[in-house]
Design a protein that fits this description.
- With about 250 residues, the chain is of the alpha+beta class.
- The protein folds into 2 domains: about 150 residues, no CATH class; about 30 residues, no CATH class.
- About 30% of the residues lie in helices and about 20% in strands.
- The protein has a 5-stranded antiparallel sheet with strand order 1-2-3-4-5.
- A hairpin with a 5-residue loop joins β2 and β3.
- The longest helix has about 55 residues.
Length: about 250
């Protein structure tokens, strides 16, 4: 009799204990799942942002390499009647270079409306492949910007504004207009000085260089809106300086 009473007191978990234990277990599972989702989303955003940054760096390096190994095509700007000294750098502008193979190459932002999905890209054109790179036409220009990246602003600022390897004119002048016949649009009249046409070179550093200013953005929904735009500004110098810089008018 005593043994039967003793066995009857040995029971399992009560219903309340099981409910409490199950609730704790469910809470732990929910916390673990939530942490996993947060980490996974953060990792996906990081990977997406890294890919965009890699695409932008690739674009910048592609242009930078051509600048370093080539020369500024100052003759192009004279032919197009662009005065680099007075050029409105806020507007659209084509970077004209001559590469190591003595080929004329160009970079520009594709024309069109701004914003994601409008096809605004950095474009490349080589006259070796097309014969001509018409700035008004779309033929011969190729996008070098990945599909995931749109370019909202692109500026190429060239200094000095005149070819430092060209000879300065000795033409007599009274004002800048008298220097147009010199063949370049960066001549200035040194009126009040020696009254001859001189270069305006925007400074005393004769090594040609290009300052690139651009803004890029992506419409990747995995990246927060505040992080979708990337702004970069860098200055790149040409490594080629043949002969001696004979234009000393700066």
């Amino acid at each position: 009799m005593h043994q039967a009473i003793k066995n009857s007191k040995q029971g399992g978990f009560t219903l309340i204990e099981m409910i409490v234990a199950l609730s704790i277990f469910v809470m732990i599972i929910l916390i673990v799942v939530n942490v996993f989702v947060v980490i996974n989303n953060t990792q996906r955003k990081t990977v997406a942002m890294q890919r965009v940054q890699d695409d932008v760096r690739y674009l910048l390096e592609a242009v930078a390499q051509e600048i370093r190994l080539g020369t500024i095509n100052y003759a192009h700007y004279g032919d197009m009647e662009y005065d680099l000294h007075e050029l409105d750098t806020e507007g659209e502008f084509v970077l004209a270079l001559t590469n190591q193979a003595d080929e004329q190459i160009f970079f520009r932002r594709s024309p069109g409306a701004l914003g994601p999905g409008t096809g605004t890209k950095v474009q490349y054109c080589s006259e070796a492949g097309t014969g001509v790179c018409d700035e008004e036409a779309g033929t011969g220009w190729y996008d070098i910007t990945p599909e995931s990246v749109e370019i909202t602003n692109l500026r190429f600022i060239i200094t000095p504004s005149a070819d430092p390897m060209a000879e300065a004119a000795e033409t007599a002048c009274a004002d800048d207009g008298d220097c147009d016949d010199a063949g370049l649009f960066s001549y200035r009249c040194d009126s009040g000085g020696d009254d001859t046409c001189h270069y305006s070179t925007d400074g005393g550093n004769f090594q040609p260089k290009v300052r690139i200013v651009f803004q890029a953005q992506t419409d990747d929904a995995r990246i927060s809106e505040s992080q979708r735009q990337i702004s970069i500004q860098t200055t790149i110098s040409s490594r080629i300086m043949s002969g001696r810089a004979i234009n000393m008018n700066y």
